[in-house]
Every structure is written in C-alpha cells, then in structure tokens.
Amino acid sequence: MKDRRDFLKKIGIAAGGAASVGFLPSTLLGQPVHKVLDKEPFQGLATIDIKGSVTSGGYALSNVVITDGVTVTSTDENGSFSLITSPSQDFIYMSTPSGYKINSLQNGSARFFLPIVKENPEQEIHFELEELKESDKKHHFVVLADPQIQNAYEVEQFLTVAMPDVKKTIESIESSNVFGIGCGDLVFDRLELFKDYNEGIKSTGVPFFQVLGNHDMDLGVRSDEMTTSTFNQLFGPQYYSFNRGDVHYVVLDDVFFIGVDKKYIGYINEVQLSWLEKDLSYVPHGTTVVVALHIPTYTGAVKRYPDRDSIGGIVNNRQHLYKLLEPYNTHILSGHTHFNDNMLLKDNLFEHCHGTLCGAWWSGPICYDGTPSGYGVYSVEGSKLSWYYKSTGKDKTHQLRVYEKGRHPEFQDRWCVNIWNWDPEWTITWFENGKSKGAPERIVARDPLSIELHDGPELPKRRKWVEPQLSDHMFFFDPSPKAKTIKVEAVDRFGNVYSETVTV
C-alpha cells in the first residue's frame, strides 16, 4: 500500500477558518466516557447532522476515514467531513492515518473517537493529530491475549510479574513506533478490575487498542446490543480501524451474547460486516490487513476434538468475513482458547491464536497445552510481518521444551518436545551426540508438564476445572541407548534458530 502520507494532503487553513482544537475536549480527558455517553436508546431526535475536520499542526488532512460505526466517509481536500447519524450510534471516530501519532486516553488506551451528544441535532467534531518524527513503515506491536484478572492475587501477578515483562520487551525494541493490542478477556467478569488492567497497560508507556472479550461484557442484560456499555464507557467503540505504515488494522467484536446464563457464540453481526465492507473500500487491494478479535475464526481444536461443540470457540459465520478479506493479505490475531495455534487458513490468510498472559487462568506457569504464559511480539517492515512468542520471565529465545523418555505417561518409551509457536514453515531437527537424526515425528498429543500440573479433579489447586489439552505442536523421537547428549533445533519461518540440549 502506498504511504498513507501520499493520501493526506496538507492544505493550510485560511485565516478566519476553523481553529484547531484538541482531540478530546478537556472536560472529557481523564473521565470515563459514560459522563457524556448515554447507552439507553434516545427517544428524541431522528437524525443528527455531524460536521467536522481533521487537522495537524494547523494544516488540514484529507482522505482520513471517518465513521459512526454505520456510515463511512472521508475528509475532503479541506480536511472537512460531514455525515448524518442517529442517536442509536454512540461515537464519531476516525481510522487513525499512517504517519501520525496514536493519541492516548489517560487510562492508556488509544484515543480516536468522540461521543455523540444525542440531544444536539447539529454537532461539530474536530480531531487533532500530531505528525510522527520518524516513518512508521517500520513499526512494532505486542498482543496480550486474556489477562483475565479476577481477584487480588491475579491483579498482583498481572501488575508485578506480567506487565513488567511486557514493559521490558517494549523497551528493548528501541523504537517510538510501538503499540499494544489487548486481545479480549482483559478481566474475568469483574468489570471493576478494568482500573487495574488500565494501570498495567499504562505502565508500558505505549497506547493500547482494546478488543472486547466474552468476560469483558455486561452480562446482566437482555441482549447482545446492551453488553458493551462498560467497555464503551472506558475504551470507546468495540469495532474500528486504524493504520500504521503500509498496514491497515481492524478490530472486531465477535462475541455474540444470546441473553441467558453468560452464554455466547462466536459471531460477527451484520452491522459490523457492513461497516467493514465500507471501511475496506478505502483500502487498496493487495494491502496487508491485520484483524484483531477475541474468539478465533478457526483453530486446530476443531479437528483435535471433533465431538466438542465449537459454537462458542470459533466464529460461526467466518466465511463471510473471509470473503471480505479475499483481496488482501490478512493476518488474524485472536485469543480466547488459552492455547497457542498458528493456522494458515488460505494462501493469503493466516490466523495467530495466542497463548495467554494468564496461562491457565493464573494457576501456574503455562497454558493448558504447555505453552508458557506470555504474549505475541510483532515487527512490521513495509507490508511484511514477523513475530515471535514471548514467554513471561524468559528470554525471547525460549521457544521449546524437551522431555526425556519416561516423562510422557502416554508415550513412556519416547522423547518429546513442545514447540508452541510452530507452524508448517518451521524446520525441526533432533541431534544425538552431535549428529543430525532428521525431523522428529509430529503427533497430536498433550504436554507432559501440563499433565503433571493440570490432570485430574484436584489439579491445579487454584482452578480445578483446568485439564491438559491436545495440541498440534508436540514432536516425538527415539534416541539410541548410546545417546550422551540430545539436542533439538527449531528454525522458524524467519530463519531464527532456537535449541535446547539435554545431557543424558
């Protein structure tokens, strides 16, 4: 995709023209949006006439995409826009353009929206942006799936163990073009803990874009449309887009509450699909598009557990999403499952289902497929993404765990290794006494450490309902009785080499 700055013509504002104003009025900064956001249907006005502008340093910005979540338009050569909205919509927001700083709320989340004042039939809305000092064609982001804090112990672990690790990783990147994505289940039903979540992300010093998870919703309501009130009050819209460098980013809400007993399905409603179709109409075909959502569109668990009901584990109408994304090179970022899966869904469609920051719900050091508690780290150069999984408290080179013969109760006579961020482009080789023995055998199996920590009705003590899960990233091999040293080497799709050596 061409540099977004090519599309953002700077036109000087004539004397006496509209004055540049802050992105959010001072009366809103630091306040929850609910101070001005009314989630109840407003019974007065039929429509609201919105006019506004986008400026940077006294210059107008053209071709900035603006939306109310239904209608999508863009600024003209004078940086101006107009649209007719309704009181059923809560926000006017922009798709933050490449080349400009991501503004932040005081809670650490990205700031790209303004609430609609529903009593006013005509409103003016102005967005102000700051041009970046360096190009964002090269940028980076971290993905935190399922922090899912529920109590004081978990808040303490989140704030003193997990988030300091994230902050250290971000600081090691040594770039000003870094942001974060909270990939849903930011909390575990206790929405009052959003304040602790916000404290954690704010400590990193970079803006975070938030995704709505099934445990982030208001559930004491009668319909899906009413579940996002608290989330909206704190973080703004639950679906939106933004741009960095040559990449277009989209966040979607794919958790559909069915109105009873905390039950939900993976589903993207027509309002969002229609909005996305319009949003993508401004994105040239062939562009790299990154879509963040909570429930994965698809995972290997569907095949690993064919008898399980997957209606709440994957997006049921995913094919309609895939159809909209066909003209693009797309990466989907998801969480929800508490295991790590990389799925090449189509030649131009790759899904990253992330292991979780909380692991197996803060019950120990790993997720229930053996993936360490951690998060995704991504680097973007032009239209190309590279990535690795960062285990909390470990070096970035920690990418596999080798088990000696006898550790796996279901494969007693075999050695095995868990390579949690594996995908089919990785090359795995095992060595005996320094000599290559070729590739180990990949088998759908459980992780031995997960079996030790999670198997049975009394384990783990903090979350007794957690059980070890099958994964597609377990590999098995058979050293000879003469083996003195065993090494497993894993080369990822980017040529990075990881290894672990065991002395027999």
UniProtKB/TrEMBL annotation:
Q: Which residues form the Calcineurin-like phosphoesterase N-terminal domain?
A: 52-129
According to the lineage, what is the superkingdom? Bacteria
What sequence ranges are listed for the domain Calcineurin-like phosphoesterase C-terminal?
351-498
Protein's organism: Imtechella halotolerans K1
Pfam families according to UniProt: MetallophosC, MetallophosN
Q: What is this protein called?
A: Metallophosphoesterase
